[in-house]
Every structure is written in structure tokens, then in C-alpha cells.
Write a structure and sequence with these properties.
Chain lengths: 113, 114
């Protein structure tokens, strides 16, 4: 079935560093792609999404571009803050499961002052 | 605040027992999804309901069942519990069930089976 693979963490960065978290997908059709963030003790929050090729999702300084040619949806941020420390999940919508989201394993990010 | 409410927040029970987890979706959302999050399996989709009807099944065990009621709240029933069922159980809701309807998650119920 449709699936996503994201880079394993943990990722540790200094404040103001550049962030990239890689995500690639395998799908038979053209799924929508999402990034979710999970802060400790909380549920997942939608960070950004893209619904078709070449779409760029952006929110709170984070960006990701839907690349059909490389089947990728990498998450980037130019300057991370300590408050960005969380677990980040890449996901795609699976039309064969009622558009439930198939998630990657998650990437833990720790930003140090 | 996502608007999705899950109760209880924590649940501790013994092997062989049965528990019920409850979810109230965001106002107006018709779809409810249940997920299990564990360290080894990550986030696993269990089951989806749309306006009271089951629409999709994922990796849900036969010991588990769910339903969505006319007021759109949903319950996940877990029976004959095993140690391996210890996990975080999330409910999510969305307005529709299409590819452009993002899921909004509750804060989860942490189940511990002893």
C-alpha cells in the first residue's frame, strides 16, 4: 500500500540552524501530503499540507514542496528555535483507507540554545 | 486546542479486561478515525467512521471494535486486553473524507495494561 519513509532521528540542532527532515513516499496515485508535529504529552497538530505536485505548503516558517519527480516532501526551516523541539511526522492520505493518513515513523528534533 | 476531546486521559487495567475509550469530534466533523501509537509500531490506523457508518479498516485486531453514535461521538472498545495493547490511542476527526480534509487529533488516551 501507499507509504512514507522519513529520516530517523533524533536530530539535534543549535538555535538558528537550518533544518531539513527528509520524507519520501510510495503511492499508486496522487496522494495529498502532510507534515504533523507532536509536542510532548500532546496530540498531533497539522503543520502544513500540499495536495498536488509542485504545491508548497508553509506555516510558522516551515516549508515543504510536493515533488512528484523525486516522490519527496522534505520539511525545511531556515532558522529553528528551541520551541520547535518536537516529533515531526510525514504522512500521506490513503484513498484505499477512507483517506486515513499513513504516517512515517516520526523524527525527533531537539533544538539547543 | 484541536476541538477533539478524548476521555479518559489515562487508563490502567489488567490483562484480560475490557475498556472503552471515548472521542468527541470537532463540531461539524462527520469523520472519526482511531489510531494506535506505540514505540515499536509507530502510528497505526485502526478504523474510520463517517456519519455513523464504518468506512475503512486498518490494522485493527478482532478483539477491538468501535462505533459512531448519532451525535457523532465515537467509542473504541478493547477487550481481552494483553500487555502488548499498552499504547497511546488517538482519535482524529475531519469534516469530510476526501484527500483535502486534514485530520485534527485529540490528545489521546494512554492505556497501560498490567
Amino acid at each position: 500500500g501507499d507509504s512514507v519513509t522519513q529520516m530517523e532521528g533524533p536530530v539535534t540542532l543549535s538555535e538558528e540552524a537550518f533544518l531539513t527532515i527528509n520524507c519520501t513516499y510510495t503511492a499508486t496515485g496522487y496522494p495529498s501530503l502532510f507534515w504533523y508535529v507532536q509536542y510532548p504529552g500532546e496530540g498531533l497538530q497539522l503543520l502544513l499540507k500540499a495536495t498536488k505536485a509542485d504545491d508548497k505548503g508553509s506555516n510558522k516558517g516551515f516549508e515543504a514542496t510536493y515533488r512528484k519527480e523525486t516522490t519527496s516532501f522534505h520539511l525545511e526551516k531556515g532558522s529553528v528555535q528551541v520551541s520547535d523541539s518536537a516529533v515531526y511526522f510525514c504522512a500521506l492520505s490513503d484513498p484505499y483507507s477512507g483517506y486515513a493518513l499513513n504516517f512515517g515513523k516520526g523524527t525527533s528534533l531537539l533544538v539547543t540554545p | 486546542d484541536s476541538g477533539v476531546t478524548q476521555t479518559p486521559k489515562h487508563l490502567i487495567t489488567a490483562t484480560g479486561q475490557r475498556v472503552t475509550l471515548r472521542c468527541s469530534p470537532r463540531s461539524g466533523d462527520l469523520s472519526v478515525y482511531w489510531y494506535q501509537q506505540s514505540l515499536d509500531q509507530g502510528l497505526q490506523f485502526l478504523i474510520q467512521y463517517y456519519n455513523g457508518e464504518e468506512r475503512a479498516k486498518g490494522n485493527i485486531l478482532e478483539r477491538f471494535s468501535a462505533q459512531q453514535f448519532p451525535d457523532l461521538h465515537s467509542e473504541l472498545n478493547l477487550s481481552s486486553l494483553e500487555l502488548g495493547d499498552s499504547a497511546l490511542y488517538f482519535c482524529a476527526s475531519s469534516a469530510g473524507q476526501g484527500r483535502n480534509s486534514p485530520l485534527h487529533f485529540g490528545n489521546g488516551t494512554r492505556l497501560t495494561v498490567t
